[in-house]
Fold these 3 entries.
Entry 1:
Amino acid sequence: MSAPRTLPWPLVALFTAGYLAPYLLPTTVGRLDSGLPLTATQAGAVGSALLLSSATAGFLLASRTDRIGARRAARTGLTLAALGYGGAALTGAVPAVVAGTVLGGFGSGTVTAVAVSGIAAVGISPREGVRAWRSDPHRVTTLGLLGVSALAGALYLTIPRLGPGHGLPLAALALTALAVLPLTGRLPGRTAPARAVTGYDRLPHRRSGLLLAAAMPFWSLAQNALWGVSGRIGLGQARLGEVTVGAVFAVALGAGLLGVVGAGALGPRLGRAVPIGAGTALIAGCVMLSSAATDLPAFAAGEIAWNLLYPVVLSYVIALAASLDPRGRWTVLVGSASALGTAAGPLTGSVLAAWAGFPAMGRVLGAVLLLIAVPMTAVALRAGRRPLPVVDIPVETPAVPARRDYDTASPNSYASTSAR
């Protein structure tokens, strides 16, 4: 009889806390521009530095969370996020703000690495001595996206009404990290070294994993270049007020909630190739529409449709990476590669907009998305034609003879307990 399915709520909370910084990027960059003596390009560069630090943490921890322990890594990441973002929120000195956002970004990346590693392994039954959850990685991913979309939407409605200043979005990131910190007690500690199993340290499906990891920076860059300047498009090109722009973002993230719910209900019925390939192509159209908007209807339509599709496609990409390695290493590496593109997004968007204007920027980004959809779809098709790998996770607990629990065929035969 299989174990009952349980939901790993600590992982969902960590996913929410780790992904919140990219979701709040437009208001964070906009507040840095308006609240500090920074140009729009300089504010975008600070946002890029935050996300680059987050990506660096992911690359450093991709194969180390087992040895460090999920509990310790998550607590360290949340503490760094709280200290970094909190310190940046409380000071007006530009060097201190930059240092705090970079430190906070490293904390967010650490938290995200722990979350996605755990999500990739939720369907694997643990051996004795290792805590794990029985669930579906795609379902847990959709719950995490629901959490971060709901929280970010609420903040987009709240922050404009609390007053000006660069500190409010940064303070929200710090407080979220502190709120999630108590949940880390349910995470597993350090597990046994992986060298006990032959080939355990080797990454499976290297060709597919590398192709997906190589595509993700461009996928994320194209979208987050727009996301990083969406506030400026609404305020400047579409001539909307901050409250109106915040309301559009909140509605857009609410649409994202509906999209994630739909993706969770649909699950793998369409496979992964169709949602990833067709979804990315549709996102390209949304990017071009939003970047060319000159009024509220066009701006709202582009942002809402894009935010409806983005988390749906992202959930399938994360599930695809998880299928390549149940230990979660490809998930972390692909996520970190995505964060590199996200990090370059605000600066890229600012530079393209300053050079050619927002509409031309949107056309360039849309073309990039259409091109990058091809290799991502190819990886999804290839992964769909092979069975998921099954790995054994070794622990230091020795096998226990079960002779007293079961009848044996001979006095010298034993049944050893194992779980897969």
Entry 2:
Amino acid sequence: MSFLEAREHQDLRAAVTALGSRYGREYVTAAVRDGKHTDELWEEAGKLGYLGVNLPEEYGGGGRGMVELAIVLEELGAAGCPLLLMVVSPAICGTVIARFGTEEQKRRWLPGIAAGTTKMAFGITEPEAGSNSHRITTTARREGDGWVLSGRKVFISGVDVAEATLIVGRTEDERTGKLKPCLFIVDRDAPGFRRSPIPMELASPEKQFELTLDSVRLPSDALVGDEDAGLLQLFAGLNPERIMTAAFAIGMGRYALGRAVDYARTRTVWREPIGAHQAVAHPLTQSHIEIELARLMMLKAAHLYDAGDDMGAGEAANMAKYAAAEAAVRAVDQAVHTLGGNGLASEYGLAQLLTASRVARIAPVSREMILNYVSHHTLGLPKSY
């Protein structure tokens, strides 16, 4: 990993910034207000090749990796118009199918995901399991040549616009009788597959849903990868999820910080702009440093993942997600504080981020569970759970 960003990455950032600047925060705010999705931005990003930049070229992707996909999401976020489903559709689902799917699954799903014409949701969280993937109760049993899937999922993003959902279930090991994780592609119109919206105090175009799987019958080819390697395949998707969540948070933090810095440069209450006062300048500077440090860890995680080091990427991705979430929350809070009453005005587009920035602290896994992971895997301390 070089600390000097390659020219192609600089060019990618510039191109995505140009795209994002044509939409901006006002576009997202209008979509939320009108109950719409950010379809125009999604479609244009797909046509430009940004949504599938990490997917294999032979299936319509850009042939690059998680580094490039994270750059795209970060820069859209810094422009005020992040696309949350990038975390799910190309990063998690696209990656899992590209790495472990059958040739038929790759040809069916990857070209559409890469182009943005197909979206896929991801269902892992359950009402009783929380962050503990070992307590997942959604189960799959063999029946004839196929599977029967039953269970519930909560806080699943974008199911209303997704053609299918990659569901994490569990099957029984014939040798031990223990349940093991497996991944299944469930079409949105599959009988017994129902969704209901979850009301959220979150201003986002992407809605959250509870899913009910009532004896959903699936063909044999709905299983992704090897039935006995589900855990490996699951974490191959969760590492990109954490990397992309970090990119999402870093972009949001950069957007908030940029608005605050612009305001502090020009807002004059006494004789000079408020940014001349250390009580204003220093907290903003601290936020900038924290965001830059989080970005370094995110890029480290992405480089490790692209190099095939799943174990190293897992440690770095968790650290990056933690650092980026904390940096984003503090940047948004400081931005609102810098603007005072204007920080809560719709004109500046910051108040909504007070809630949105906290999502990165609790999803897809809480910061406390990340601390548990690092304390056990990195520091070698005993497990607390």
Entry 3:
Amino acid sequence: MTPMSAPVSSDRPFLNRRLAPFGTTIFAEMSALAARTGSINLGQGFPDTDGPAEIAEAASRAVLTGLGNQYPPGPGVPELRTAIASHQQRFYGLGYDPDTEVLVTAGATEAIAASLLALLEPGDEVIALEPFYDSYAACIAMAGATRVPVTLRPHGRTFALDLDELRAAVTPRTRLLLLNTPHNPTGTVLTADELTAIAALAVERDLLVVTDEVYEHLVFEGSHVPLAGFPGMRERTVTISSAGKTFSFTGWKVGWLTAPPELVSAVRSAKQFLTYVSSGPFQYAIAQALQLPDAYYEGFRADLAAKRDILADGLVSAGFEVFRPQGTYFITTDITPLGEKDGLAFCRALPERCGVVAIPNQVFYDDKSAGATQVRWAFCKKTPVLEEAADRLRRL
């Protein structure tokens, strides 16, 4: 039997040109490196413990009793949509109709993809805060739009947004602002004053806004304030979040968005041709999770704050310049005090040097030089793991 070979019709590459620059994600590369070397993986942002047992049991019951084992409703099961709307009202005083203003997605990543595919046309410009989560650039490219980065720059021990730079980035072609707060990877939480200015700019220039708020319950200093609550913003904002980060079930891939009916309808039109539906039984479990008492959310935040401090102190002792995050579960460091200049080379060599894996921030930048010496570390791990990682890093 003749072996099959790939069809060859021309010199044209198989991967379309919009995705050609992206290739394999840095997360896959560094996680594979961690596995190959037996290193502690502080690269990819997933916990090493599961979320509440009662929520896992709720998922098990759903499977065993036939809840969600077949296709759930396209917008998401009613119980979850109602719980999402109640969550927005409970924590932020934002009222949404669960029937027309809530859409359940396969994680926040699909919510971002569906939003950008639905709302953008080729030639549109999208402003995103740099450094940005790598799916942003890929989704903007798939939509045929152009990304315009506005860089968060080191300012003291944090990263700051230059509002003048943001305003200057808006052109007649700007269609949408893509914001992430709390911000991955820098840990910056935009202030009420910054959000007020962003809202005023969006209203003035009639811009749509997509906000990625998956770390909304991981703010250690101050509080998270959704942009949709500012004057003139509810009708132009798609607010995205998910269960993965808040409840430590990242593999369940249950995300959602809230927005006015016209925006939800537009995004759903794209979403239905991506996954159509997903995570049926898990949707029922997350509906229960969103109703957990305040004590859960407070304990979760306090636990991660303590872990942040363990790793941050260890990184300081190892000689890094540390930007202690206000939110998320990532710490950004600068490797310059160690005599290093290339974060990518540093991260690739780190497992052999001391048995720890991290992520080079330069992959989150269009301007690679802006993040060349920055490295990101995840602290959503067990305390003994973080303590061991800190000890290993002191070898540097």
